[in-house]
Design a protein that fits this description.
alpha/beta, 10-stranded mixed beta sheet, 18 helices, globular
Length: 703
């Protein structure tokens, strides 16, 4: 096995450690019960996508006999073996959390899931009525025999395998649990609340589906398939190529089979043969199969008090308070908005105002992931209908959002927008919005740049930062960027923006090396960075060199971190923390001490090869002095989190911050408090202003 050139933690194993940190939140008894249940559901949803993309990719490498080690020194075969061990152990912890911690806590609050055997007569009549009127008409039992082959089961669908007996001969059938119906049904209950899972109702009534056979055994199961799209980007019609690839996703090779531990041997053997899965791809669990349904369960009416108190965005953000004209606010100074503590509505209103403003000539925007009922897209359509030139880059290759983006692209085109699908071989991941407006002193360009998607739904759950400016240097950069994205322009020398894939890697390398040189010269040095993932081997090697030169390196990495801190002689000056809390940490912020004149940047890029080399990304400087100080304070507050932060050790494990002698700081809740406080201070300042007497114009004091 080849040794890594520099200490490097395997990417996939590091991701599993991240999901384990999410699971810790489900086990944390100080968290509200329903929020704990939601964290458990998130771990299941995360794991689904991990199998569909990352595990599936390694399986493909193994199948193709690819044996080259990755940066950590592991071959695909070794990775798959270690991952299988780690995921099996993780799955055991998931169900231990459910059965030994979550369900007992629910029972103490008189909330229960019942099987038909545990129901009273009233509840049995209720499920009988539901089965006859709603469930039975939807069910389709599928027999498997010589004339009827094993069905192609949809990815992640929940199914029930049934072993049947007739005239001494065994047969099998499959019944799919309809995903169109809620996974659980609430039952009449005199004390508390009671529920039943849909598959348990079906199992109870199976004899009505197979009246001519004797039911010998039943087993709920679920298949996860390889869902990473293979797209022919040389195709003349990219949209058509992606639509074809989406259909293939539904019948990708199985990479995981989940089934109940009590599944009988004959039924298990049948499923393994039909699905052609290996032993390490089988996950036998105590049930229920597929915990992702818990995310909807914990959001039911009546459970509000058992969830985290919602973080309600202030609207308008303090930085925009007192302005009726959003363009005037941006002309006065650069503006920063911290979501979701400050409302994303200001971004929506920016586009809506531009769409209706007769002086706005053009709107250009990148869209990577948008909501299902996007007010941003509606405003762009309205702008086109009002005769403005609207150019939208819709990234059709945004994983698992391809269909949604295709639908929006068609609607935008139908409305008269110029729609571009991205650049061949690159994903366009940057978040940039440009409004070109005619004003008294000429054409002015207004720019919004952010760390997160133009998605009003996720903006309530993800922490992100956006900046508005009408500085000419940023406007010129935004225009140049869109010329590259929509035409054949050569990538320019940007004034302020740092753009991947052409210049971002060199920029970050230069900034890190500059800190290393400053440390060697005895000048102030330091690097503080917040990203979602740190994977890039070259960046990691430079951070190790910086550490060895004495540069203090502070990294806030939510998810994957392949860098290993605290290694003697290598990374002693590097500290890594991860914040996992009520909200998903999503902002990317980069601070470099720069010899005592610190610089700070924000943007869309993580420190991963894909972001630096294979995507269009934008990182931008924060130059307004007030906003710089605010950005510095945002980083410092997160760094000082003592509740939701975990620190990484040199053995790559994570542990909670030692809180002895330290105040209790939950950075996310503190940001929410600060946003409300800032708005109150703005309101109070206006109330305290003395009244100004109105004068006749001729009596006004001379300037």
């Amino acid at each position: 096995m080849k040794e890594a050139a520099v200490p490097y933690n395997n990417r996939e194993l590091s991701w599993m450690d991240f999901n384990a940190r999410v699971l810790e939140e489900a086990l944390e008894k100080d968290n509200p019960l329903m929020s704990r249940i939601n964290f458990l559901a998130i771990t299941a949803s995360n794991l689904d996508e991990f199998f569909m993309v990352r595990v599936a990719g390694i399986v493909e490498q193994v199948d193709s006999k690819y044996t080259t080690p990755d940066a950590s020194g592991l071959t695909p075969q070794a990775q798959l073996r270690l991952l299988s061990e780690k995921i099996h152990a993780f799955t055991e912890r998931q169900y231990s959390c459910l059965h030994r911690s979550i369900l007992p806590a629910m029972r103490r609050k008189d909330i229960v899931f019942l099987t038909p055997r545990e129901m009273n007569e009233t509840q049995l009549r209720h499920i009988n009525d539901y089965f006859n009127k709603t469930l039975f008409p939807v069910l389709t039992p599928l027999a498997v025999d010589r004339s009827r082959p094993f069905p192609l089961l949809a990815n992640k669908s929940l199914n029930i395998a049934v072993r049947l007996q007739k005239d001494g001969e065994s047969n099998f059938a499959v019944v799919q649990v309809p995903s169109i119906l809620p996974r659980f049904l609430e039952l009449p209950c005199d004390n508390g609340r009671a529920f039943v899972l849909l598959e348990n109702i079906i199992i109870e009534k199976l004899d009505q589906l197979f009246e001519l056979h004797r039911i010998e055994a039943v087993c709920p199961f679920r298949v996860t398939r390889n869902s990473d799209l293979e797209i022919d980007e040389e195709s003349e019609d990219l949209m058509l190529a992606i639509e074809k690839s989406i259909k293939k996703r539904k019948r990708g090779r199985p990479v995981r089979l989940e089934l109940l531990q009590r599944c009988d041997a004959e039924t298990k053997s049948f499923l393994v043969d039909m699905l052609e899965v290996s032993d390490q791809e089988i996950y036998e669990i105590p049930g229920p199969v597929d915990l992702t349904f818990l995310s909807k369960f914990c959001g039911l009416p009546g459970f509000e008090e058992m969830n985290f108190a919602p973080i309600r965005p202030v609207d308008p953000p303090a930085d925009f308070w007192g302005y009726d004209d959003i363009f005037e606010a941006i002309r006065d100074k650069d503006r920063m908005v911290h979501h979701p503590y400050e409302s994303f509505n200001v971004v929506v209103r920016f586009v809506q105002t531009a769409a209706e403003d007769p002086d706005v000539l053009a709107i250009k925007q990148t869209l990577y992931r948008v909501s299902g009922n996007s007010p941003i897209v509606a405003a762009l359509i309205r702008a086109a209908e009002n005769g403005k030139q609207v150019t939208v880059l819709v990234e059709l290759k945004a994983r698992f959002d391809e269909e949604n983006n295709i639908n929006w692209a068609r609607k935008l085109e139908q409305a008269g927008c110029h729609v571009v699908y991205g650049l061949s071989g690159l994903k366009t991941h940057c978040k940039v919005l440009l409004v070109v407006r005619r004003e008294e002193d000429g054409i002015r360009r207004y720019v919004h740049m952010g760390t997160g998607n133009y998605n009003d739904s996720t903006a309530r759950l993800y922490t992100d930062i956006g900046m508005f400016t009408c500085r000419e240097s940023f406007g010129a950069d935004a225009s140049s960027l869109f010329n590259v994205l929509t035409g054949y322009s050569r990538p320019p020398e940007y004034n302020k923006m740092v753009v991947a894939p052409d210049g971002m890697r060199r920029f970050f390398e230069r900034m890190i090396k500059n800190e290393t040189e400053n440390a060697k010269k005895g000048l102030p040095s330091g690097i503080t960075v917040k990203v979602n993932s740190l994977v890039d081997p070259e960046i990691i090697a430079l951070l190790y060199e910086a550490s060895q030169a004495g540069v203090p390196v502070r990294l806030i990495v939510r998810g994957i971190c392949c860098l290993i801190p605290g290694l003697t002689g290598i990374s002693e000056n590097i500290t890594v923390i991860s914040i996992v809390g009520q909200l998903l940490e999503h902002s990317r912020i980069f601070r470099f001490e720069n010899g005592g004149m610190p610089k700070i940047y924000m943007g869309s890029a993580d420190w991963m090869p894909r972001n630096l080399d294979r995507r269009v990304e934008v990182v931008f400087p924060v130059e307004d002095e007030q906003l710089r100080q605010r950005a510095f304070s945002i980083l410092e507050l997160m760094w000082n989190d003592t509740v939701n932060a975990r620190v990484q050790s040199s053995d790559t494990s994570y542990s909670h911050i030692d809180r002895r002698g330290k105040p209790t700081i939950r950075s996310q809740q503190e940001f929410a408090r600060l946003a409300k406080q800032a708005l109150r201070e703005k309101e109070h300042a206006v109330q305290e202003e003395p009244y100004q007497p109105r004068m006749h114009p001729q009596e006004a004091p001379a300037e």
